[in-house]
Amino acid sequence: MVLGRGELTLFAAVPAARMPDGRLLMDEKFVSGMTLHAQRWDGPVRAVMRDLGKGALPFAAPVDPATLPFAVTLLAQDAPLESALGDAPGVILASADMVDQLALGAAARARGLRVVYGIEYTLETRLRIAGLDRDRNLPRRLWSMLWNIRAERARRRELRLADGIQLNGFPAEGAYARLNARPLRYLDNRMSTGMLATPAEMAARRQRHDQGQPLRLIHSGRLERMKGGHLLIPLARALRDRGMPFSLTIYGTGALEPEIREGIAREGLAGLVQLHAPVPFETGLVPVSRREADVFVSCHMQSDPSCTYVEAMGCGLPVVGFANHMLAALAQDSGAAWCLPMGNVEAMAGRIAELDRDRTEVMARAEAGLDYARRHDFGIEFDARMDHLAAVLSPRDSGRAAAGRPQHVRAGS
């Protein structure tokens, strides 16, 4: 347990709703995450959430607030977030990715509270997302890009003034770490120690490589253009045209699902490419990745801190992908990925064909990735974030508690 003592208040991105019987309808993953915060924090923990009212809330379940190890403040849709601030001593954790939370900093400091902002998207990523938004015409996309540029000024100002900042991924670290005296870079992922690939599974994978069996490629994620889903069939076609034996298994759903299914049929790829609906992460995707795949393929071109990379590495899979800022930095830091020019499917197919002929290299990077994921598993990254919050609230006490450990700047390093 970290030496928090004051109240830890988290301003949530996900809403909740109050039921007629007094129970709360809450996202199950959010409840699990908040429970971990309560277990690790030496002091009261509270979540501030918007009241969704009668709207639909996927993946939610009724919860008796009296059974929760943390308090919940439910705010009306039109209530200012600042109205939920408590009294000192305490620290708030807010999201600098959400513009409506940027005003919390000044209000919290006025009450004597410490302020920590978390952030994962850079301005470059925001502009790319706005530019790819097919639901808006060109003038509206341009307006959205201009709005993001203007919002960035307030975001950078609040990051400078905060008592600490938590940066998810290498791009956010590169863009914002120098703004604040107490930055923490972490790599968000869902891999616990018990979910990592086992020595027996790695040995079985190595045996397949030694026997020269076809490479088993796997991809998971939302099937959207902004995630590179439109490039999966062209990649499979390029590999097939090279005469390389392989399989590509895709797990996911999204706007491109019909297009991908049609592409599999049109290109005659049914014997090589399989498209499956999403499966539960821990009980479905992780076991399949550990036992039925050799390389994770990503066509993602944005630089957001996709947790998929580290999670694939934790399953014993090296990653082949495009050189977005996140994967390029991760490849250098981990030695467990190959990066190709952005959007160049032919180059990616060429690299995979080379790997088919060099299975020693595949296994070397698989082992490197597994070791890297072990040093950055969920527990390590989460503990680093909690220690960082405690250090912000009680620098002297947290310094003594961390004696013998390097003062944290980068989780898992």
Automatic annotation (TrEMBL):
Annotated Glycosyl transferase family domain residues: 210-359
Record key words, sorted: Transferase
Xref: Pfam families: Glycos_transf_1
UniProt keyword Cell wall biogenesis/degradation present: no
UniProt keyword annotation of Transferase present: yes
One GO molecular-function entry: glycosyltransferase activity
Protein name: Glycosyltransferase
Lineage: Bacteria, Pseudomonadati, Pseudomonadota, Alphaproteobacteria, Rhodobacterales
